[in-house]
């Protein structure tokens, strides 16, 4: 059976991670298994107990998904800077009795945008909608991609401000990093890239973003995937944006980052992205 890996979440039935890592393992000739584990939400110690029993059974690493990313953060012994900053963990490695933690969501997103969608962020105007866990995970890798301007918008603007302050301190060399409310966006002109990192699309809602933020030659990216043309992507398309994408590439790229971290070999991602892509309309 080889080295053992798993993804843990609740619910977990929808996860594509076993398929993705199974494909990577085959492609790179790695002797390993990868399964899905439904982590118990009750009792409070249920998550850490599940992780520890997986480690005791010889587990080498795990991906972590909702609702356990913060608990994984709390139980880890060592954390990367991006995991530390995002306050959340989506991948763990078990080595010499220690739990080492990472968060590849943001780097996976940046890689999808820059490499797969051919939209380098350096020198560009980038707008992130939302200031929850998804936006927090993306922020450090986004700043590292050196956009000219990075604007974070949230309904509760204090949350956007807190996030920006947290990142701005360690990264003063970045271009301008701004927090604002949706009502301020009208006056801010067009952005080269607009990312929907809110959870609005999960309930079919549209964040209150004015169409004036979109640029026809720019891109709009929806973090959710497999939901077709969400209200956000529809708004972008109606505003004339040609480059619209959902988060399927991010899903595969963050998995590839974790795989490379665990196995020391980076799998090819294009084939799998094409296979998992659900047409937007
Ligand atoms: P998570 O950490 O899992 O991403 P969260 O912290 O609840 O979840 O964050 C959800 C994000 O989506 C928040 O930025 C939220 O905005 P508020 O903080 O102002 O509530 C945003 N969000 C959810 N539904 C939204 C909607 N209909 N329009 C705009 N933003 C929305």
Molecular structure report:
This protein has 281 residues and is of the alpha/beta class. It folds into two domains: 129 residues, Rossmann fold (3-Layer(aba) Sandwich), CATH 3.40.50.10860; 141 residues, 3-Layer(aba) Sandwich (Rossmann fold), CATH 3.40.50.720. Helix content is 37%, strand content 21%. Helix 1 packs across helix 9. The longest helix is centred in the C-terminal third of the chain and has 16 residues. The N and C termini lie far apart (40 Å). The model has no long low-confidence stretch (mean pLDDT 94). The structure holds 2'-monophosphoadenosine-5'-diphosphate. 2'-monophosphoadenosine-5'-diphosphate binds next to helix 6.
Bound molecule kinds, no repeats: 2'-monophosphoadenosine-5'-diphosphate
Topology, number of strands? 12
| Poorly predicted segments | none
Q: How large a portion of the residues is in β-strands, by DSSP E? A: 15-25%
SSE run: EHEHEHEHEEHEHEHEEEHEHH
Order of strands, main sheet, comes to 2-1-3-5-6-4
Mean pLDDT: 94
**Structure annotation, total helices:** 10
Key terms for this structure?
single chain, 281 residues, alpha/beta, Rossmann fold, 2 domains, six-stranded mixed sheet, 37% helix, binds 2'-monophosphoadenosine-5'-diphosphate
């Amino acid at each position: 059976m080889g080295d053992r890996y798993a993804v843990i979440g609740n619910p977990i039935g929808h996860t594509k991670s076993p398929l993705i890592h199974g494909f990577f393992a085959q492609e790179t000739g790695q002797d390993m298994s990868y399964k899905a584990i439904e982590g118990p939400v009750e009792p409070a110690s249920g998550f850490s107990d599940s992780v520890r029993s997986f480690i005791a059974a010889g587990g080498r690493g795990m991906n972590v998904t909702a609702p356990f990313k913060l608990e994984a953060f709390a139980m880890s012994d060592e954390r990367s800077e991006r995991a530390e900053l995002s306050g959340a963990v989506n991948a763990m490695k078990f080595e010499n009795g220690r739990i080492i933690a990472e968060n590849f969501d943001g780097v996976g997103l940046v890689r999808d945008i820059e490499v797969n969608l051919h939209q380098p962020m350096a020198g560009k105007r980038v707008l992130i909608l939302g200031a929850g866990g998804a936006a927090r995970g993306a922020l450090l890798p986004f700043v590292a991609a050196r956009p000219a301007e990075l604007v974070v918008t949230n309904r509760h603007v204090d949350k956007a401000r807190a996030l920006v302050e947290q990142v701005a301190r360690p990264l003063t060399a970045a271009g301008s990093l701004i927090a604002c409310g949706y009502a301020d966006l009208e006056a801010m002109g067009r952005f080269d890239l607009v990312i929907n990192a809110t959870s609005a699309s999960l309930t079919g809602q549209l964040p209150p973003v004015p169409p004036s933020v979109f640029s026809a030659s720019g891109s709009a990216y929806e973090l959710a995937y497999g939901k077709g043309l969400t209200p956000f992507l529809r708004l972008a398309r109606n505003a004339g944006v040609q480059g619209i994408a959902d988060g399927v590439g991010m899903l595969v790229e963050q998995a590839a980052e974790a795989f490379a971290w665990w196995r020391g070999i980076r799998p090819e991602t294009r084939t799998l992205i094409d296979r998992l892509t659900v047409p937007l309309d």
